[in-house]
Amino acid sequence: MRAREVRRAMRSQERRRFLPPEVADEHHLDVPLPIGFGQTNSQPSTVAAMITLLEPFPGMRVLDVGSGSGWTSAILGELGGPESAVFAVELVPELVERSRLAITLPWVQVHHAEPGVLGLPGQGPFDRILVSAMADSLPSELVDQLTGNGVLVAPWQDEMHRVRRTGGEPEVTDHGGYRFVPLLHTRFRPA
Prior knowledge:
This protein has about 190 residues and is of the alpha/beta class. It has helices at about 5-10, 45-55, 70-80, 95-100, 140-145, and strands spanning about 35, 40, 60-65, 85-90, 110, 125-130, 145-155, 160-165, 170-175.
């Protein structure tokens, strides 16, 4: 999928709808915006770059890990269309509820993450997995949830990576430095 199609989907799923009222007027800025609970809504240029690397396609099964506000999940749903299945997973209960209210596409489902479990292994395999939080290393438990030839885009060790699952070792490419909030996969405790 080309960058132009990704930008069109981003405009269709307006960022303002996914932001808390206190920062909604800043939706047009290319900066990460706080959504509460120590989490952020990623800056639009980062979202566009990650989704373009993911190579979404109509009818895909996709997992959005660390879905936060639900904005990236809605964009993926827009790109995948009604034949797709988008599974968003978020650990913070309040963000799960807010994103369920903001997402209007019925083929996008928001799940509360099970503490200690990364992703949704019971719903896989997935054609695409997007991770919007910084891991310490390659999240191999997510690679295991990919279909053959599936793609995962995730940051770890301050770099954005693209992982394609193959018959052997996954193919990993690096795509520049990024900063994200930490990937949470244990019980969330508000600050």
